[in-house]
Write a structure and sequence with these properties.
The structure is a homodimer of 192-residue chains. With 192 residues, chain A is α/β, with parallel strands linked by helices. Chain A has one domain: SPOUT methyltransferase, trefoil knot domain (Alpha/beta knot, 3-Layer(aba) Sandwich), CATH 3.40.1280. Helix content of chain A is 40%, strand content 21%. In chain A, the strands form two sheets. Chain A has a six-stranded parallel sheet, with helices on both faces. Chain A has a two-stranded antiparallel sheet with strand order 7-8. In chain A, strand 1, helix 2 and strand 2 form a beta-alpha-beta unit. Chain A is globular and about 50 Å long. The termini of chain A are far apart. The interface between A and B is large, with 58 and 58 residues.
Chain lengths: 192, 192
């Protein structure tokens, strides 16, 4: 049984070692990008990030994610970031700028997985040029024009693994995985 | 040297075995979703899909992707699909519907990797209920509300691996991976 137990020990260690992740979205255009930025926040939440800082702030995106959390639970939140450089400066951990111009993700994954805390920075169409300098890593998911939602999703999956299933703390709704159709468990006592 | 050569043989075999992938986007809302659907198409292209069928058709998305191809090369295209059920019916290979209500992606990945050709179907907010039945697999990337762009990106990455780098056939532009800033190689003879 030595193999089995050292296997589980390795597994437990690997799980414990998943870095905690926050996301910083800069260059959001309120009024133009609400759906895209909401998708970015949903992807961040679904793939295990703890929060998304949003610059410039946009109460409509914050509200969308609050509605998601009230149904589906968990602690993910959208945090207004009037000053994004302060968020980068004050982050205690590696700062990873996702850009198609950066170094190949595959090469950096082993190092990123060992981090205890990471801040993934995701720009829009135009990115302030100092970001390339103040980030610890400029990382590319492929070298083709891309979607920031896709790049963030793939990077989170590679660094933290596929999302762990099961309802989140405080959830009213929980999905029961199903080969056909939709099965949702509603927690007793939830508002209709 | 036996180990090394059998290693490369295995590698070559694994690479050859990557399934060819098409994407079918249904429930697109022209006028409301152009950016989101363009992001979906860009993610499909960047992560190795060959085409994206679009229902209902939207010439503005087709045109966006043609512009990308004229600069960045490759053969990816957006194909108008007035009848999406015909696309599903005529696809010679597995049909994978991405939905948060489906079975866990991790469980299905080994089987999907062995396929020679896959069609990933991605819905919008509302999905026709017969899709759950006519798909070969209903597959979830996590069990939380999500972005279809993120779900497609993660599924493609898990099934086909991270994108292979290097300029595509006919590209005018090619990125040189860089730790800081942007380096782009412009092919001689390209239009300014």
């Amino acid at each position: 049984m030595a193999t089995a137990s050292s296997g589980s020990a390795r597994k437990a260690k690997r799980r414990a070692a998943r870095p905690r992740v926050s996301v910083l979205r800069i260059g959001h255009r309120p009024g133009r990008d609400p759906r895209l930025t909401t998708h970015l926040a949903l992807a961040a939440r679904a793939l295990g990030a703890e929060r998304m800082y949003l610059h410039p702030p946009d109460p409509s995106v914050e509200e969308s994610l609050r509605r998601v959390a009230s149904k589906w639970g968990g602690r993910f939140e959208v945090v207004p970031a009037a000053n994004w450089r302060a968020v980068v400066r004050e982050h205690a951990g590696g700062v990873v700028h996702l850009t198609m111009y950066g170094l190949e993700l595959a090469r950096l994954v082993p190092r990123l997985r060992r981090a205890s805390s990471l801040l993934f920075v995701v720009g829009g169409a135009k990115v302030p040029s100092d970001l390339y300098r103040i980030a610890d890593y400029n990382v590319a998911v492929g070298d083709q024009p891309h979607s920031e939602v896709a790049a963030l999703a793939v990077a989170l999956e590679r660094v933290r693994g596929l999302p762990v299933r099961g309802g989140r703390a405080g959830a009213q709704l929980q999905i029961v995985p199903s080969a056909r159709g939709k099965k949702v468990r509603v927690r007793p006592g939830s508002p209709p």
